[in-house]
Amino acid sequence: MKSQAIIRVALVVAMVSPVGFVTIASAQDHDRDRDQLKTQQQLQDKDKLQTKDQLHKELKDKEQLHERERARERERAREHMQTERPEKPQHERAERGERGGR
């Protein structure tokens, strides 16, 4: 009787043991895979942030360049208007007003 019980226990242990080892190994593989995936996602997120920051900086630089160009254009237009129509001296303005009033 004892020998049959020992054999059965040994058989059960033999059948369960590999499954236990496989389960532990599988869990370790799963953990490793999950950690690798997290690391990859963190690297991708970091790359996205750097790309986003770089694009934001480039956009800001581009806007500043456009603003400087607009300021130059306004200055050129102002200079052009002054050369086309120079301001009349004050006494000429007064004479013009008198002529229109007659």
Task: Write up what this structure looks like.
The protein is mainly α and 102 residues long. It has one domain. The protein is 93% helix and 0% strand. The chain has two helices and no strands. It has helices at residues 2-84, 90-101. It is rod-shaped and about 135 Å long. The mean pLDDT is 79.
Secondary structure elements and their pairing?
Layout: H1 2-84, H2 90-101
The number of helices is 2
- What amount of the residues lies in strands? under 5%
Structural class: mainly alpha
Q: Sheet bearing the most strands, described?
A: none
The CA-CA distance between the termini, in Å, is 142 Å
Give the CA-based shape: rod-shaped
Tally of individual domains: 1
Round the mean pLDDT to the nearest integer and report it.
79
DSSP summary, beta strand count = 0
Q: What is the oligomer described by this structure?
A: single chain
Indicate the radius of gyration in whole angstroms: 43 Å
Order of helices and strands: HH
Low-confidence stretches: none
Percent in helix: over 70%
List its salient traits:
mainly alpha, single chain, 102 residues, 0% strand
Compact overview of the structure:
The chain is mainly alpha-helical.
